[in-house]
Amino acid sequence: MPDALAIRTVLGDIAPGELGVCDAHDHLFLRSARLPGQELDDLPAAVAELRAFADAGGRAVAQWTPFGMGRRAGRLGEVSRTAGVHLVAATGFHQVAHEGELMTERVAGRLAELFVDELTRGMRNDDDPDGANGTARAGLIKVAGAFHGLDAHARAVMTAAAEAHHATDAPIGVHLEGGTAALDVLALLCEKLHVPPARVILSHLNRSPDARVHRQAAEAGAFLAFDGPSRTHHATDWRLLDALAALCEAGHADRLLLGGDTTTARARAAAAGGEGPGMPFLLTGLRPRVERELGERVAHAVFVDNPARAFAAGWGSR
Q1: Is 165 known as a binding-site position?
Q2: 204 is in an annotated binding site
Q3: The domain 7-32+42-267+281-293+304-313 is classified under which CATH number: 3.40.50.1820, 3.20.20.140, 3.30.420.40, 3.40.50.2000?
Q4: Over the stretch 68-125, which tens digit does the pLDDT of each residue have?
Q5: Side-by-side strand order, sheet with 60-63
Q6: Whether this model's pTM surpasses 0.90
Q7: Taking a C-beta distance cutoff of 8 angstroms, is the pair 88, 140 a contact?
Q8: Any known ligand binding at 55?
Q9: 234 marked as part of a ligand binding site
Q10: How far apart are the first and last CA of the chain?
């Protein structure tokens, strides 16, 4: 394993200190069987949103759209270069409801191989798991749990993700359905499959604002990603600062991440027809509140220091 850690972006590896202010969970492109007609597939709109984020002081975005969901892998380098923002892209696999039965059947039994290939050689076209690799490599493995538990599909995908992690040291980002099953995920990935907790990023925790679960996950050593404010999940937005404050008071400010999780064109801020709050609001609206309520040191940790640690990896043969 190399001595130096690096963050793998779509334009190449960078030192963790180069990442800068980071939106730790968002989407520039997204297609889901559960969101027909709401695709994020407009290239100029993606660039405009990313530029608006950059104008607000943003320097990096982790795009969690996994294989099979319209992530536009072949265009991410162009988008990153045009907007002047680092992009960390995802390989991985979502729930069957998002990916579809056909794609699930096409990749069954060979997910670990696909993940490693996309992390080390380059991402493929989303509709062709057997196609040629592109030039942009993934820097994150995205997986998903089920509601209040882990079904057979989730366990199979997470097992493949753990195998890919052990081969590459890549971080694993976990979609928690409704913010639930965080401890089930850690029991499988960390206790059974031996992934270090610090290589696991648990997302959507704001959707289930259970302070005890949050604290236990932080104590285990995982990173906790809160995404919002969100048009889709506004019902728990008002608890976000309380959840962050509770974790800081318990000594876990170094485990916290924040992201916008923009999943539809309507939720964008910069494009025509967008109603927000969008990617820029993470810095124009939420960061000032974090600074005021929790202090500038915590805000810097959440937006700069913690993402630099969460997404950094050794990238060598294990």
Answers
A1: no
A2: yes
A3: 3.20.20.140
A4: 999 999 999 999 999 999 999 999 999 877 877 777 888 888 999 999 999 999 999 9
A5: 22-26, 60-63, 86-88
A6: yes
A7: yes
A8: no
A9: no
A10: 6
